[in-house]
Every structure is written in C-alpha cells, then in structure tokens.
Amino acid sequence: IDITGAKKSMVSGAYLFAIYSNSLVSYLDFEEYSVKYGRPYGYTCVVKKPENPVKLFKLTEWLRVEEQYNRYAFGNALRIINDIENETMKFIGSERKNAVELLKECLRFYEVWDNGDYREALGKYKKINAKIPSFPCPSAVQELGEVWFVNEDPLNTVKQIEGEEDINQSIYLQGSKVLIYAQDELNKIARLIRYKEDHRSALLRAIGLNDFLFKARLIKLWVNNQLQIEIDNKTLKRDELDDGFRKAIDKSLLRYSTFDNIINLLRKGKPFILRVYDPKKEIKVHCLDKTPTMEKFWNDQKPNPYELFKLRNKAIHFCLSVSEEIAKA
Asked: What region does 22 belong to: left with phi over 0, alpha with psi -120 to 50, or beta?
C-alpha cells in the first residue's frame, strides 16, 4: 500500500488497513527539494518502508494479555508477557520496567487466588498493597488467608482448619467464612463453564463444594445437639458424653467421608454407622425428632444432590461426558 502524497485522513485509514491486513506499507521520500518547482528532485527520491507499530510494540500480544486477564487466565497472561517483555523494553525504556514487573506481580497474585491458595495469595497481596494501597483484595483472601492450610504441610494443616484438635475452632462452624468460601468457589465454577468450557472440572469442583457444605451442616448439627448417637442401647447427645469419648466422636465425624450416608441422614434422617474404638462395635448417628432435614428443599432440585453425587462418581470412575447443563446444575 503506497501512502505517498495522500491526505492525513487517507494516510491514517490506509495505514490502519495495512496493519490489520498485514500488508506492506511504502512511501516515496526524498533528500533534495526544488523550491522553484515545488517538488523533489527525482534522482534523490527513495522508497521507504515504515515500521509496523503493531509488530514493533507487540500491540497484538498486549491485547492478548488483556484478553487472557479478562478471561481469568492469569497464567496465560503471564506467559505472554514473559515472551514479549524483552522486545517491549527496547522501546518503552527501562524506566517502565518496574510497571511491567508490578503487573506480573499482580497476575501472580490473581493466579494463586484463583487456584484456591488463600494463604499464599494473602502474602502476595500484602507486598502489592505496600506499593499500591488502593489495590483491591478478594474477600476470600482477606477472610481465609490467615487460617488456610499451608502448602508445605497440607495434611496436618487441613486437620487444624477442620478442628480435629478442637471442633469448636472448626471452619465448619464459622458461618461467615463458610459463606465466603462457598461464594468464591461458585464464582470459580461459573468461570470454568463460561470461559474454559471445562464442564467436567466444573462438576467435580461443584461436588467438592457440595461435600464441604454437607460436612459443615453435619458438624453444626452435632455441636448444637441436634444429632445423637446410639450406643449400648442408649441415645446420647454430644453434651451428654464424657470429654474423652466426645472428642473421639468429634474426630470421627470430621473424618467421616461416606457422603451418600451423610446425604441420607441430612435428607431423610436415616442413621449411619461410626466405629470409634472397637471396629466391631457400631455407633449409630441419628437425627432427633426435631432436627431439620432437607427433604423438601432437595425435592425441588433437578438433579438433586444425591443424583449429583452419583454423577460425580461416574465422572471420576467412568468415562461420563459432562454437559454444560449438568455442570450448571
């Protein structure tokens, strides 16, 4: 595309078209100009090819960074910046390098938060906040960062969060933290469906949240004496147990992971079996007559939580293709 002699509006339009169509742009330049005749000397004219600013400044790649950020693909945005950073620095100058490094630091923070590591995210946020006091922090990071598990020792620190040493300190009993965690997970599940179309991962993550909420309800009912155990032909609430046995039951319930039994208990009040000291000795966990069940709520859900539990098992142990409708449910 030759833009020699055109008006400004024509030049800008032709130049933009050439950039986006990846066409070559040229114009006729000169070294000597005749004032008398009002034109350059032909023998001094030379065809020049201006640089493509989109390629020069990596504008397309920076637009991709913005696109990946808006899709919550923070790791992808970081990788693009790392690929184009050296070339970009040649033209924006070293004084702007700090801005690029700060952008990368923010993306690392968001990536860690999106992966659910609230403790690590809080540490990164504090460093950024010292440089940008107005930098916003997700509420899940603020509320859960200090109490979340430690990556270096996840098994033991998860036990601490759940309250195996003291059930009264369990996250399951901290209503505001449970709600904040649930809302954060729901948003991440929605993004898996909307941006990544990863319906299988969305289903598995949703069922993980479901299990967390079931366990929270179970533990809260137990601590509030709305469940009871049956042992040696006696039915006892939590407050009626001696300290040692109460702590053993607390720990057993926290570790209990047969969620179809938990669902049946919470849904219809059907008891399930615990074995604490003696593997042969059954301890039945019952609802009280006045314990609120979720049968009416679940009857209105399609698919209901028990059906979702079965779908989860099929997705893990069988080649179940998860549709968008199932993931959204």
From this structure: left
- Could you read off the pLDDT tens digit of each residue along the chain, which spans 329 residues? 787 877 778 888 887 788 778 788 888 888 898 888 888 888 888 988 887 777 777 888 999 999 999 999 999 999 999 998 888 777 776 667 788 899 999 999 999 999 999 999 999 999 999 999 999 999 999 999 999 999 888 888 999 999 999 999 999 999 999 999 999 999 999 999 999 888 888 988 988 898 899 999 999 999 999 999 998 889 999 999 999 999 999 999 999 988 888 888 887 778 899 988 776 788 999 988 888 877 777 776 677 766 777 777 777 777 777 778 777 76
Q: Three-state secondary structure along the chain?
A: CECCCCCHHHHHHHHHHHHHCCCCCEEEECCCEECCCCEECHHHCEEECCCCHHHHCCHHHHHHHHHHHHCCCHHHHHHHHHHHHHHHHHHHCHHHHHHHHHHHHHHHHHHHHHCCCHHHHHHHHHHHHHHCCCCCCCHHHHHHCCCCCCCCCHHHHHHHHHCCCCHHHCHHHCHHHHHHHHHHHHHHHHHHHHHHCCHHHHHHHHHHHHHHHHHHHHHHHHHCCCEEEEECCEEEEHHHCCHHHHHHHHHHHHHCCCHHHHHHHHHHCCCEEECCCCCCCCEEEEECCCCCCCHHHHHCCCCCHHHHHHHHHHHHHCCCCCCHHHHHC
pTM of the predicted model over 0.70: yes
Collect all residues with Cβ–Cβ distance below 8 Å to 103 and sequence separation of at least 6: 81
Calpha distance 302→323 (Å, rounded): 14
